C-alpha cells in the first residue's frame, strides 16, 4: 500500500437503469472519496443509497459507470465479505475457506490455520447447512482473511445476528485486523456499529448520494467497549439521537 491514499474514487456518473416502469435514477454524480492506507472507513446511510453499488465498483464487479477508481500502489489484493455468507453448499467448511487459494497442501494448511483463528477448526469437514448463521459468517471472515488482502470490502457482514453474536464477530474482526492490517470499507446502516468499528465515518444521503458528514473516530479500545462513550460520539458526529 502507498503511504498516501490507498484508494481514490472519482465517479462522474452512475445510474440505475429504468426497470419495470420505474424511471432511471442517478446513484452517484461527481462523487469523490479518498481512503487512506490501513484506514477503517465505515459508509453509513439508509438502504438504497448506493453503498453496496460503491463497493461493487471498487471491487470491479460493476463497470457500468463513468469515472475511475485507482489504488495507491499497483493492483491490490481485494477481499469481499458480502451481506450473506455466500458459502458453496457442496464444499466443506475447509473447502470454502481454501476456495480463493491455489490448490495444494500448503493452501489447505493456510485455510486450516484460519479456521483455527476464527474458532471453527473442529468443523472443517462439515458442510455449510450444518452451521448456524454466526458460524457461517465466521467462515466468510476466514475466507476473506486467508488471502491476506490489502483491501477488505464488507457489506453489512454481521446483519441478521443478535447483538451478542454481532458483538463477538466485531471483536473477532478487530483481532484479525490486528494481525493482518488492511484498508477496510465497511457498509452499515447501524450508527453504533459504525462508531464502534471505524477510524472514520462517512455518511451518505440524497439522490444522487452525496457525503454529508465525514468524521474521524479517535476512540481507544476501552472506549469502543463503553456504550455511553459510543453514544456520546454518535451525537457529536450527528448520527445519533
Automatic annotation (TrEMBL):
Species of the source: Ancylobacter novellus (strain ATCC 8093 / DSM 506 / JCM 20403 / CCM 1077 / IAM 12100 / NBRC 12443 / NCIMB 10456) (Starkeya novella)
Residue stretches making up the ABC transporter domain: 7-231
Family, per entry: Belongs to the ABC transporter superfamily.
InterPro entries xrefs: AAA+_ATPase (IPR003593), ABC_transporter-like_ATP-bd (IPR003439), ABC_transporter-like_CS (IPR017871), ABC_transporter_ATP-bind (IPR050166), P-loop_NTPase (IPR027417)
The name this protein goes by in its record: ABC transporter related protein
Pfam families hit by this protein: ABC_tran (PF00005)
Domain of life: Bacteria
GO MF terms held by the record: ATP binding; ATP hydrolysis activity
Amino acid at each position: 500500500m502507498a503511504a498516501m491514499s490507498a484508494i481514490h474514487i472519482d465517479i462522474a456518473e452512475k445510474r440505475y437503469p429504468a426497470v419495470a416502469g420505474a424511471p432511471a435514477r442517478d446513484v452517484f454524480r461527481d462523487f469523490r472519496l479518498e481512503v487512506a492506507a490501513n484506514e477503517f472507513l465505515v459508509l453509513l446511510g439508509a438502504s438504497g443509497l448506493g453503498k453496496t453499488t460503491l463497493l461493487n465498483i471498487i471491487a470491479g464487479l460493476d463497470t457500468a459507470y463513468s469515472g475511475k477508481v485507482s489504488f495507491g500502489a499497483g493492483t491490490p489484493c481485494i477481499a469481499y465479505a458480502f451481506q450473506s455468507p455466500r458459502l458453496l453448499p457442496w464444499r466443506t467448511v475447509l473447502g470454502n475457506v481454501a476456495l480463493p487459494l491455489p490448490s495444494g497442501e500448503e493452501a489447505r494448511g493456510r485455510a486450516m490455520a484460519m479456521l483455527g483463528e476464527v474458532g471453527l477448526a473442529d468443523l472443517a469437514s462439515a458442510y455449510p447447512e450444518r452451521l448456524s448463521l454466526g458460524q457461517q459468517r465466521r467462515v466468510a471472515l476466514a475466507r476473506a482473511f486467508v488471502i491476506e488482502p490489502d483491501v477488505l470490502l464488507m457489506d453489512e457482514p454481521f446483519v441478521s445476528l443478535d447483538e451478542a453474536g454481532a458483538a463477538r464477530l466485531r471483536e473477532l474482526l478487530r483481532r484479525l485486523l490486528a494481525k493482518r492490517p488492511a484498508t477496510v470499507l465497511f457498509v452499515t446502516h447501524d450508527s453504533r456499529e459504525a462508531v464502534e468499528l471505524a477510524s472514520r465515518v462517512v455518511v451518505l444521503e440524497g439522490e444522487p448520494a452525496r457525503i454529508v458528514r465525514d468524521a474521524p473516530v479517535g476512540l481507544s479500545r476501552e472506549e469502543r467497549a463503553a456504550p455511553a462513550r459510543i453514544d456520546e460520539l454518535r451525537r457529536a458526529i450527528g448520527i445519533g439521537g
